[in-house]
Design goal:
With 272 residues, the protein is α+β, with helices and mostly antiparallel strands. Helix content is 33%, strand content 23%. The protein is built from 8 helices and 12 strands. The strands form 3 sheets. Strands 4-3-5-12-7-10 form a 6-stranded antiparallel β-sheet. A hairpin with a 2-residue loop joins strand 3 and strand 4. Helix 1 runs antiparallel to helix 7 and helix 3 crosses helix 6. The protein is globular.
């Protein structure tokens, strides 16, 4: 596989990942949009309110304590979702771009919100989770991220540094430190049940579950706090992104899965 171009930005972020070639998107609209993204990423680095650390101190975001307080209620809803774990989609079945880093069926997802658009049916299934998420300013994505035994997500970077990522530990098997972890740049972090981890996925990161049990986190993206003019540009891009072909494709894929998933649930209820 050819190496992706890796322009190094200030603060150690890179605009690409060695060994991973992005999927080609020939659309002129997409090429234009990505040109703006590259410019906006430099603004986001320069005008970041809280700086650009790979991993944040949770105290930077006081609302994170409220998210942790909601963990038991969120876990109860997750347990119901996992009753149909085998029917949940693999991430690359929803977002085909993920095939560049994951091509097996061991990374399952359950979306409540993707790129600012809601999954109304999934929100009805997890109302307390959704209620808790309203504490997070600039919420863009909410899903349960399910790493089944043996899953290893190779080193990669997120598509855009205008968002930050939060993981709330839901199911974290007991393991040796090297068996279950996430690396963000040069920091190795470990999930804890009921605890928040906030990081910048625009830094190279990788995650692994080398245990024989499932690991689940609540996976959240929210808008990175920036000052003008980055704040204005970021707002514009976040609102335009939904019109790009690869995001539209992902939303369509999720709607197709959602329709089938809940039709099967209704059929089972009717039989009962």
């Amino acid at each position: 596989m050819a190496k992706a171009e890796t322009e190094t930005a200030d603060h150690g972020q890179t605009f690409g990942t060695e060994g991973i070639t992005p999927m080609e998107r020939p659309s002129a609209v997409t090429r234009f949009f990505m040109g703006i993204v590259n410019w906006a990423e430099k603004l986001n680095l320069k005008y970041a309110i809280h700086g650009n650390p790979p991993v944040y101190d949770n105290a930077t975001f006081p609302w994170s304590k409220e998210i942790e307080a909601a963990a038991p209620a969120i876990r109860a809803e997750l347990d119901k979702v996992l009753l149909r774990q085998a029917e949940l989609p693999s991430f690359q079945d929803i977002s085909t771009d993920v095939k560049t880093i994951s091509d097996d069926n061991h990374w399952k997802t359950f979306f409540l919100l993707g790129y600012g658009l809601k999954s109304e049916q999934n929100i009805k299934t997890c109302p307390k989770t959704w209620e808790a998420m309203q504490k997070i300013p600039g919420l863009t994505t909410v899903m349960f991220s399910i790493f089944e035994p043996g899953k290893h997500l190779p080193a990669h970077r997120g598509p855009y540094n205008g968002v930050l990522r939060l993981h709330l530990g839901m199911i974290v098997p007991e393991a040796e430190p090297d068996q279950l972890a996430i690396r963000v740049k040069d920091q190795i972090c470990h999930w804890e049940e009921g605890k928040v981890l906030i990081f910048d996925d625009a830094y190279e990161h990788e995650a692994w579950n080398h245990t024989d049990k499932t690991r689940v986190v609540l996976f959240v993206d929210f808008v990175k706090p920036t000052r003008f003019p980055a704040k204005m540009v970021n707002w514009m891009l976040m609102n335009l992104a939904v019109f790009t072909p690869f995001i539209r494709e992902g939303l369509d894929n999720h709607k197709d899965w959602e329709k089938k998933f809940y039709a099967e649930a209704e059929a089972l209820r009717n039989r009962s």
